Amino acid sequence: MELFFQYISENWLDLLGLTYDHIVMVLLAILMALIVGVPLGILAARYRRLGSVILTVANIIQVFPSLALLVLLMIVFGLGFKTVVIGLFLYSLMPIIRNTFVGLTQVNPAITEAGRGVGMSQLQLMWKVQLPLSLPFIATGVRVAAVIAIGVATIAPLIGGGGLGREIYSGINMDNSARLYAGAIPAALLALLTDFVLGQVQKRMHVSR
Q1: CATH number of the domain enclosing 169
Q2: Burial of residue 24, with CB atoms counted within 10 A of its CB: 0-12 exposed, 13-18 middle, 19 or more buried
């Protein structure tokens, strides 16, 4: 452990930079997944036949081995940051689509009927009633997707990406445990912190409903 703390004290600026890269990759992927996943979840809830197709495709992507998916994306998009973000985006889609779908289908039909009774259009019902009531479920999807993305991002260096995975793989290749832990421990702490923060946000949403 002494070597680990010595390595941290000597390279903390570089590690901060790698942590920043890791966070940026995950944030971009989650943002893209929200922009695409929430509308797909709405479509899945509104049109059940189409929904089964959307959920099946998203599930296939989710269970695809992460390294294999990134390698396939690398063939199409090349090495680097963009390919990693696209891969993380694809892995983040399923939790967001599924939880949007579940949230919308759990809305009490009586509330929807009451909205129709006061003259709300379908669009107004969606934006003013159904989506706000589904926010805790969507927040759960974001929470799961973010933790998954943080973990998958550690293999980014294998396809030319950055992030904390660089320290992990450098530590493995150089048989340097201090360097390996310098990448693995911050990545694990980042996942735990993200899960905790988003969990608190989710609880506040449940309380405010």
Answers
A1: 1.10.3720.10
A2: middle
